[in-house]
Amino acid sequence: MDNAPFASSQASLVDKPIATILVVDDTPDNLTLMGTLLKEHYTVKVANSGEKALRIAQSAPQPDLILLDIVMPGLDGYEVCRQLKDNAATRNIPVIFLTARSDTDDERAGLALGAVDYITKPISPPILLARVNTHLALKATADFLRDKSAYLEREVAMRTLEVQAIQDVTIMAMTSLAETRDNETGNHIRRTQLYVKALAERLRHHPRFEHLLNDRMIDLLYKSAPLHDIGKIGIPDSILLKPGKLTVEEFEVMKTHTTLGRDAIEDAERRLGMRVAFLSVSKEIAYSHQEKWDGTGYPLGLAGDAIPVSARLMAVADVYDALISKRVYKPAFSHDQACNTIIRGKGTHFDPDMVDAFVDLAEDFRKIAEKYPDPS
């Protein structure tokens, strides 16, 4: 005969923890009676006052259920229940009121405080045991669901962090690849990130931009900014690294870095098989950051609000940093010279409101540049 199912059943019964019941009553005879009824099935703790009940309820191991008398000196049952439910550590312990009161208003008051049941005295042992068993089963289910929910929340948070990390690593890898071809440094990338973020924060409550520049969008802008020149990886060294002024033909080739950047990011989206917010913003910035407010920029000659907000922000940040940075084809401008150039571009090269924000933040831009200088 196969005894395995029976043995398994026995093991589950042995392993199942015995529930703990806290009985609260100021009458010793009632505590004795309740203990006698319950001890065969449960671990029983007793308290002869509301104050003691609260201490026991907050101590480990906590009771799984509380049987609570209402009429007691000092803290009555209603006040004990109220304090239990106000405390995050004890609010999930089910409370059953035990009382000689049978008035409907009393029962309503007890249930309104958060009690799960209301049993009148004299106690009927079968009814008491049935109610206790029912509410312990309900508590076990509620605890399971709470634990499951907490577990799922932790899993979602962990997956979210993983996705964010993948995004960050993707941007870092693509940016590092571009840096190997360009004479600009990693600190240029860091500075422009911080400039864009500072401008966006400054403009987030502006009537023209408040619909777009929320926390999430500003975070996406910050993450996407490093990819603004990713297309330069497709520009020949003879043009990209040329120490002198580019010819008209060479400049036309250089201008294609915007389209090359957009195409590279679109290809990444296609391979991924889905649209990703930070790649969409990166694509806007890469493709349109050389557009000008008056329509004289490239690659499309967009003007005014037709230029994506992300690209307009990047334009201010990129030009300022290019001006203050030494390049093989030019010396570094001073902070004041760079600021004056940005201001002169108000309404022609740059969105006027963004230039106003830049003027307000000029000192912040200078501090960012000083904190992240290019290597000597």
Write structural notes for this entry.
Helices cover 59% and strands 6% of the residues. By secondary structure, it is an alpha/beta fold. Strands 2-1-3-4-5 form a five-stranded parallel β-sheet, sandwiched between helices. Helix 12 (277-288) packs across helix 13 (309-324), helix 13 (309-324) runs antiparallel to helix 14 and helix 13 (309-324) packs across helix 15 (352-371). The longest helix is centred in the middle third of the chain and has 55 residues, at 125-179. The radius of gyration is 35 Å and the shape is elongated.
Structure characteristics:
alpha/beta, disordered N terminus, 376 residues
- In terms of quaternary structure, the protein is single chain
Shape: elongated
Largest sheet: 5 strands, parallel
How do the strands of the widest beta sheet line up side by side?
Answer: 2-1-3-4-5
Beta-strand percent range = 5-15%
Q: Helices and strands: which structural class?
A: alpha/beta
Distance between the termini: 86 Å
Mean pLDDT: 87
Number of E-state strands: 5
Unreliable residue stretches: 1-15
| Discrete helix count | 15
Order of helices and strands: HEHEHEHEHEHHHHHHHHHH
**Amount of helix:** 55-70%
Radius of gyration: 35 Å
